[in-house]
């Protein structure tokens, strides 16, 4: 159903776009919440994803499945939201006297693990950016190797190799 709506929306059908956005919103929010431990942050990322889909649906050509295209937008948006939140927190730390704010890493094992993973992905991206997307698409978005290869335009073997390398690097950052 989403495939057909996406194709129609890409061709300029506004009603199809509105129906598509309403249909994917719950799933997008759930997927953003896989990245971001705070619900409000996941909502912010979700809104950004929906906005990006609306703005960029014309670039969806149907070469890969709509869900694959959407997963990439979700992963990038959630990671961008995290970077933005981190930057804002650092700026506020300089402007406001310190006060006790619970650190998600110590208040929730799950939230702390997500934040640690996002930090590790950010570090990896600064050194080996080509490794990040395959790992995120496989381990967080749970796409098949074939889908990742199609979307990134690289051989499936290269996808598997990059995922293996990325996991090793992230493991080092997390230890």
UniProtKB/TrEMBL annotation:
InterPro entries noted in UniProt: RNA_pol_sigma-70-like, RNA_pol_sigma-70_dom, RNA_pol_sigma70_r2, RNA_pol_sigma70_r4_t2, RNA_pol_sigma_r2, RNA_pol_sigma_r3/r4-like, WH-like_DNA-bd_sf
Membrane spanning residue stretches: none
One GO molecular-function entry: DNA binding
GO biological-process terms attached to the record: DNA-templated transcription initiation
Domain RNA polymerase sigma factor 70 region 4 type: 115-167
Keyword Transcription: yes
Keyword DNA-binding belongs to the record: yes
Keywords assigned by UniProt, alphabetized: DNA-binding, Sigma factor, Transcription, Transcription regulation
Domain RNA polymerase sigma-70 region intervals: 25-88
Family under the similarity heading: Belongs to the sigma-70 factor family. ECF subfamily.
PANTHER family attached to this UniProt entry: RNA POLYMERASE ECF-TYPE SIGMA FACTO, RNA POLYMERASE SIGMA FACTOR HI_1459-RELATED
Protein name in the entry: RNA polymerase sigma-70 factor (ECF subfamily)
């Amino acid at each position: 159903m989403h495939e057909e709506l996406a194709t129609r929306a890409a061709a300029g059908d506004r009603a199809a776009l509105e129906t598509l956005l309403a249909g994917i919103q719950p799933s997008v929010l759930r997927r953003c919440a896989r990245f971001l431990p705070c619900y409000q942050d996941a909502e912010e990322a979700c809104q950004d994803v929906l906005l990006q889909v609306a703005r960029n649906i014309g670039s969806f050509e149907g070469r890969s499945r709509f869900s694959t295209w959407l997963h990439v937008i979700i992963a990038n948006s959630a990671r961008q939201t995290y970077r933005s939140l981190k930057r804002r927190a650092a700026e506020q730390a300089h402007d406001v006297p310190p006060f006790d704010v619970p650190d998600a890493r110590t208040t929730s094992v799950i939230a702390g693990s997500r934040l640690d993973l996002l930090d590790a992905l950010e570090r990896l991206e600064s050194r080996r950016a080509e490794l990040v997307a395959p790992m995120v698409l496989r381990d967080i978005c749970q796409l098949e190797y074939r889908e990742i290869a199609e979307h990134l335009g690289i051989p499936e073997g290269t996808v598997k190799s990059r995922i293996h390398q990325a996991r090793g690097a992230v493991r080092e950052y997390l230890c």
